[in-house]
Amino acid sequence: GDLLSDTVAIMCNGSLAACGSPLELKTQHGSAIHFQLTIKKENVMNVLGEVKRQFKSCLDWVSIEAGDAGYLSLSYKRVCTEGEDGVPLTLLSNFIGWLESNEAPILE
């Protein structure tokens, strides 16, 4: 529902437990955004280095797991606007642009 909703309300035992945009709720109560990347095994360390370079100013807000089998898992603990704690939307947008470019050695 988060693509179809501007605001989500969560009820618990007949009472309002949480209310906000899907991104706000995910940021407050779980990982805001998660990527699972499939990479050729020989490119894992290069992609890991690029991820760390792109998010160097906010690595405390990014959880990274790299596997020798050719995957990289990224979870962004909090997405924010400029000047707040978390991963700025501009960095996330630039990263997605890199993923979609021909420069990124991402299989899936």
Characteristic terms for this protein:
108 residues, alpha+beta, two-stranded antiparallel ribbon, 3 helices, 7 strands, elongated
Q: Can you walk me through this structure?
A:
By secondary structure, the chain is of the alpha+beta class. 29% of the residues lie in helices and 31% in strands. The strands form three sheets. A three-stranded antiparallel β-sheet has the order 3-5-4. Strand 4 (62-67) and strand 5 (71-76) form a beta hairpin. The protein is elongated. The mean pLDDT is 86.
Judged by helices, strands and strand pairing, the structural class is alpha+beta
**Rg (C-alpha, Å):** 16 Å
Secondary-structure element order, N to C: EEHEHEEEEH
The residue ranges in which pLDDT falls below 50 over 5 or more consecutive positions are none
Number of helices: 3
Strand tally is 7
What's the N-to-C terminus distance? 24 Å
Helix content: 25-40%
Shape: elongated
Question: Strands of the biggest beta sheet: in what spatial order?
Answer: 3-5-4
Name the average pLDDT. Answer: 86
Largest sheet: 3 strands, antiparallel
Strand content: 25-35%
